[in-house]
Amino acid sequence: MKKIIALIPIVLLVLIAACSNDEVTPQERFDQYVKHWNEQEFNEMYNMSTTTSTEKYAKEDYVERFKNIYEDLNIDNLDITYDKLSEEKMETAMEKGTAQFPFTVEMETIAGPITFDYKATLIVEGEEENANWFVKWDPGFIFPAIKDGGEIGLSNIKPERGEILDRNQLPLALNDTVHNVGVVPGKLGSNPEQAKQKISDLLGMSVESINKNLDAGWVEPDLFVPLKKVPKSEEETLNQLWEVSGVTERKVTGRVYPYGESLGHLVGFTGPVTAEELEEMDSGAYSANDIIGKRGLELLYEDKLRGEAGVEITVSKENEEDTILAEKPVKNGEDVVTTIDADLQKKIYESYDGKAGTAAAIHPKTGETLALVSSPSFNSNEMGFGISQSRRDELQNNPKQPLLNRFTSTYAPGSTFKPVTAAIGLNNESIIPGEGIEINGLTWSNGEGWGNYQVRRVSESNGPVDVTNALVRSDNIYFAKKAVEMGSEKYVNGLQQFGFAKDFPFKYPIETSTISSNGNLNDEVLLADTSYGQGEIQMSALHLAMAYTPFLNKGNLLKPTILADAEKSQVWQEKLITGEQATLIQEALRNVVAAPNGTAKGAHIDDLAISGKTGTAELKKSGEESGPENGWFVGYPTNKQDILISMMIENTEKQGGSAFTVGKVTELLKAVK
């Protein structure tokens, strides 16, 4: 105990000495100042500024300037570092009442990193117990370049949008000169209302819209008032516009679609980003004046096409060159090169002659998508440059539904589906090559469970019917019998191997092909109907085209591709049938066209051997004896096998059914041979 008591006076002496030396050092004050700065506490920083600084810079100006600059430039990861004063320099500073701290500022900005060195001077202000160290502040603390004045500028450099090209580098969407058509109000002539009506008719915009533009607060009689952008391809419309008094133009760059309606659904269009779209996007990704893909490939590949804006942070001073503080180079968008053949796409679209339907063309050996057609369609130029509400209403109310993208939709494939049923049966051995079955008459029912329902075929057979004969003659009863024989489980399993009820492996969103409304075929009548492409089975034109690839690739079902740099001949499902079975189906498809009893005799021409399969999908409702029909044909050149077209035309019941579609596909294959 005595030793402990003896130590107490010594401890007290130490404490007394420490208390007598509690004067704040410049090091401690600058530590505090930097802490506020790193945390962007500008009010506290201002309160630590010298009197001369606060007299020169009002608190509101100081705080708001710091705050606005840091917010506008998106300053983040701010880090101020400096070296501590040595004991010797500290003593000198305490004696003189002034200290200097060289420091380094590092920050991330919207234009990239900025780093600078500067020097802080601290001086003592106040008397005795109120004395303290304060920072002598000037604008160089924000950026040294504005120490003696100057304006900080932020410039955005818009990227050039990438183009969309076909397989031959032909532009499907490009940036080109367009005519920004407008009027000079004071030159509309003696009858302005008549002139406005003429402009309205030619531009497809209402007189009310024209007047709204002309009534804007900034408009003067001699100023140009823009109305609508028009591509230079609309030469006839432009020539008529130039004849109207007061109409003039400004040439600008815009998004142009050379193939118009033929590629409307596939390529889509761009337009100004909306407030709703901005809310859904990452902050800063787009601004209110940006253009964004709205539909089709323009939307699908938006991230690749749009690029990244360049940004420059500069300091401007009168009679001096701008000083660049930070610069993020503009990154232009990338081109998207597709497998599409634009000329083929146009030929297929024009072959519809306004009729409704859809088609897919592929290279059956590589899986490349050559065309995806939906008819009727819309003109991407019209949509992209501003469509009037009356024109939009006209498209929406059109009974042929030009705004509906049919190539992404699914339909009953009719008898074009029979080769798939044949392949499933051959694979699970419920169908044996060359083995025939007796079928009598034109109708068949499988007993009491079917009620009054009967499967009907087009023609009677002479003798037993095997798979080849059934394909050539398109015998519904043969395939219905075979599906019932193999049973629902085996048949559904085979359909799933062909990609039904599975996500379609394609970059462009295509509806999933379905087996039935509930995914099974437990009802025997539904099973029978499904076997020949009726019932509830639904598939897209592209899936149907791909379903024929196993017949031309030794049993392998290929994946479709749409980008030119994608790997070719990718296998989706392997070895669905053997090479021998594939050859059997190929030969049958040739005889569908070439044999006297084949259903596609219209495709039998002298200068081109064609193989394929017809199909008529009846859309009659329950209890109806007849209804609308969709005519299908899947065809390809027998020997070359470098193109396969899957085509459907709606409402062909009065035009010869599938024979009408056969004629269309035949002419197309002749044109591209």
UniProtKB/TrEMBL annotation:
Signal sequence annotation: 1-21
Residue intervals of the Penicillin-binding protein transpeptidase domain: 357-658
Penicillin-binding protein dimerisation domain: residues covered: 157-318
Compartments, record wording: Membrane
Pathway: Cell wall biogenesis; peptidoglycan biosynthesis
This protein's record includes keyword Manganese: no
EC id: 3.4.16.4
Domain annotation NTF2-like N-terminal transpeptidase: ranges: 25-148
Top-level taxon of the source organism: Bacteria
Keywords: Membrane, Signal
Family: Belongs to the transpeptidase family.
Protein name (Swiss-Prot/TrEMBL): serine-type D-Ala-D-Ala carboxypeptidase
Species name: Virgibacillus litoralis
